[in-house]
Structure formats: structure tokens, C-alpha cells
Protein: FAD-dependent oxidoreductase
Amino acid sequence: MHNLGTDVVVTGAGPTGLMLAHELALAGVDVVVLERHPERTGLSKALNLQPRTAEMLELRGLLDGVEARSYATVQDGHFAMIPVGYDGWDTRFPFQLGIPQAAVEGFLEERLAAQGTKVMRGSEVVDFVQDKDSVTVRYRTDGGETRLRAKFLVGCDGSRSVVRKGLGMGFPGVDGEGFGVVADVLFDKTPAGAQKQWRTMRNIGEPTGETTFKGLIPLGEPGLYRFVYGDRASRPADMRSTVTHDEVRQALHDSYGESATVSEIRWASRFSDAARQAEHYRAGRVLLAGDAAHIHFPAGGQGLNLGVQDAMNLGWKLAATVHGWAGDDLLDTYEAERHPVGAQVLHNVAAQLGLTPRSHESRALRAVFADLAALPEVSRYLSGMVSGLGIRYETYGTSHAALGTRLTDQDVLTDTGPIRPSTLFHNGDFVLLTTTPAHIDAARSQAPRLTTQLVTELPWPSTEAVLYRPDGYACWTAPTPPR
Structure:
């Protein structure tokens, strides 16, 4: 049995694990990614990036590469399949990007390799042991077992997380009572009324009975669609049973009639409406992120995005701890900030499921809610909830309108002309925008990795400086001294 060493072990090469590894490598942390599958599955899985995730990718200069692999720009989001717009938010990306999860994973893995970090595929974690100084991970490959000693271990290994189970971490929640199926199907003839290009969430899905539903999302290739169907009040005896092609074809026939024939079913999978969240996201030197920390029904298209945003929050904090300029108090803020965000997502998903039109009364409630969702203030609230744009982290000490809010990335003026602030975040540093150089030394004492930019003005009155964390949230401000 071989013994190796590294700073951080990340288990799972999904979007969460790859994004976290990217953040750590960018900060100069030695990271090893263990993935049990011998190669990428290529399955499309999740299909969207929300506006806040697009903003975060832009902070690292990654968005152009992702956009190049996307196939759709979707101008609205949805809450319980009721469209909600992003118009009320100050963002450069008031839309969703349609892109398969497999394409996101492929791009992130390529960028990670360019940083000198490769995913160790075919490496299945068996168990781990932690002490006050390190974590020793035992994993299995075709060549036998290996022990890998690290300063930290992060479980990004999905809903059945070996890391979470190894911690004995509670995963409370509800089992749910329904199910859904997703399948990528190639139609011989597209059903009437189906969108040819994915531009809006309108008419994408609809109830087919009191608790049943169906939906079609075009996937960019002629005739290729994501077919979604299910029942929110019943489920198969075995939720892990394979979805057969005959089952999918029968569901297509039931939903769209005899004309709904397909030449190919590329992939199909069953999903549950179970909702669970880890009691804690950290236990000593072991942390959880993504589906290892929370699972929910895919209402609103939030799952992949929630995990990537977990990774952006954790990455810089874990790197600071590894490098020794921050301690447990900073690393503990990962759970303090992200656990409430995950809980809120589970809450809003439950509310969306509550709008299932099961009865005369619930149909009336859904109709009234749809009318309310059309109001600009309500639409902004709901879209901020499902997109992540509405997140504001709690800060302590001085009260200021900027603190805890996200960078909106609107141009700022400098002596040489306007610049886009997101370009200052590409190295993963803290970023200080200030109207006077006097604040640079003060900010540097709080953030050893610091990029500074002198600007002619800031958008807040009586403010000379604002310091942003590497994940794009304001964490410190300096007032303009009184005359």
C-alpha cells in the first residue's frame, strides 16, 4: 500500500468538486481530485447555469469558455413552472445559460488540467481517518489500495456521499412521496407546440393531472429534447430501478399521443422529491459541499448552481487556512454562510411542490400565485431566490449598504477610462476599489492576496473604499473622512 501526501483531497469530479479544485489550485494549494468513475459519463444531467453562477464564472474568466459550449440563452427562470423574470436585478447576465452538466464538467476539467491538476479517475474512496493535524484517505484503484494524507478532505461525492456517511453526519429531511424521470430523446417528429429553441420557460412544462406532470426542453440538436415526466403523489417500489426504454416510450405516448415516436433514447434516469440537508458542513478537517451536503427536487433549476456556489464560497477560505493566514474562525464561516442558503433552497423547493394542482382549491391557489408572480416586485423576489442573485451574507461591525452584497460588475471609472471590475478577480485575490491610495495598506493587512484599483468614484455616498472577497462579496468599507 502506497502513501502519498497533499494539501487537500476532493472526492467527486462533478461541477462542485471541479470548481472547488480549480479555486484551490488557483490559490496555489496542492489538491488531488479522486473520482470513482474511470471516465466521464457524458450524460447531460443538469441543463442550466443561473445568473449568479454566470457572474461567478466571469470573476475567474471562465464564462466565455462555458458560453462557447452552451446552446441556449433563456430569458427567464421559473418557480413551480411559473415563469419569473430577472429584469429587476442589476446584473450583466439576466438570463440562464442552457448547457448540459457534462459540458460544464468537461470545460472545468480542461481548465484544471491546464493548472497542472488532473482528476484521478477510477479511484474509489474506501474510508478515512482524521486527527488534529491531518486526514488520511484510503482509496482503491485497479492497482490496489493507496493511502493519501492531506490537511483537509472535502466530500463533493453526491447524494450517497461516502465522506458524509464516513463522518456519521446526520442527513435529516423527508423522503418525499413522488418521483420524476428525465430522458434525452431524439424525435422522428417533434410533438406539436414544442419549442424548437429554448428561449423561455413558458410552455416548457405543465401538469397533466392532479399530481402528474410533463415537459419538453430542446437541447440544441434538431429533434433532440429533454423529456421530463413524473407523479408527485406516487413512486415506484424501487426508486433505483433502471428506467427502461419501453417505460419512456409509453410515457411519451401517454403525454403526446401516437405521433410522439422517437428514433433514439440516449439516456434516462429517475429522481426523487426527497429533501435532505447535512446537519453540519464541517467536522474537524472534513467538509461537505454540493449534493453531499444537500439534496432536493430539481424545481427551479437550482441544484448544480447551489453546488458551484458552495465551491466558490469554500475555495478561498480553505486556501487561506492551508496557507496559514486564516484559521478556524474563517473556515467556520463556510457553514455559517452556506448552510442557511441550502436550507432556504430546500424551503423554496417545498413551496414549489406545494403549488402542485392536486385539487380545486390548490388549482385556484396556483392561479392566484401565477397572477402575483407577474408583479415586478414578486417576480424579482422569486427570481432572486432561485438564481442566487438575492443572497446577501451577514456581516458584523460597521453597517454599510455594500457589505455582504455581490459585485454587480458594472463599469467603474479610472483616470485612464472605464474598466470592468470582474477582470480584477481572475487570480482569485481580494479586490480593493478605492478613491484614495491611503486605504491600500489597511486593506492589505486584512487580505494578504490583494489586487487594488484606484477609481474616480464609488456608487455609495461618503465611501472611499470597498473590499471584495475572492467570491465577489463586499466585506469591508472605509468612509470618507469628515472635512
